[in-house]
């Protein structure tokens, strides 16, 4: 019997390729491979990775035009989209990448144990995920970028910005926290009536998956049970490793500190987010200081980029346009 969720993936991959993106697998170190959707100018005619292309021997007009076009593409601002915990990159950002590809070089990595990314390393921390993203971007020749992170991907984005301020120019984060402290985790689980984050985020039954979608969205949406069954089979793979990732998130409340970020930060939030509510976002904005901004989207929950993609895309485009403008660059430099 056809799995509807699995059957969607070839179509989604085709749409991404039509938009000018290509899947690339990068071996970052022995035993660690990251899968990234990247602009097609990184891929040679035979599908190989082209990080530092050589000059063509023939000086014919066609190759000159191709080289000029390639340089034009490479000069565009770089934007990295980091997914959350329920799905890999292309599934998470399927309603958002299309509005960005004409203006930006998009990079959509699959974090470790999502999609085709895997590692033999025992490290399960968001710091490790951030190091892998940074290593993949370095392999692709990206020296400066704006990073967009959702939920778990937002935590990775914060770690990346903290560790590599010369790489990350700005952050746009949704439904996330700088660090998942024991206090924040306990408050969220008590409010949602869940025993643990693993119970909430790694459901094994239809009831559990329905509960997760219910707290993740503002609107009550109906799907046939067949949809939920197919989703459980496809989206919650590598269960052991992902459970370990959740354990690797937790930070002692006593040891937790708020870093001083050099970047401008946009907190783009669903006003009806039940997992990380808008009050938590307001508190985080105050902690992060004057370089942090908060914009709430009405009638949207945790999955705001899926539930209200037009509103989310509009605000994200405004943010990226600002940080890439002369005014934004001047403020950033100061």
Q: Can you walk me through this structure?
A:
β1 (21-29) and β2 form a beta hairpin. It is built from 14 helices and eleven strands. The protein has a single domain (4-51, 60-333), classed as 3-Layer(aba) Sandwich (Rossmann fold), CATH 3.40.50.1820. The protein has helices at residues 4-18, 61-74, 89-92, 126-139, 152-163, 182-192, 197-201, 206-216, 225-235, 239-249, 278-288, 304-307, 309-323, 326-333, and strands at 21-29, 32-39, 78-82, 105-109, 118-119, 145-150, 168-174, 180-181, 250-251, 264-270, 292-297. The termini are far apart. The chain is of the alpha/beta class. Helices cover 44% and strands 18% of the residues. The radius of gyration is 20 Å and the shape is globular. This is AB hydrolase-1 domain-containing protein. Residues 77-309 form the AB hydrolase-1 domain. It comes from Digitaria exilis. Residues 45-72 are annotated as: Disordered.
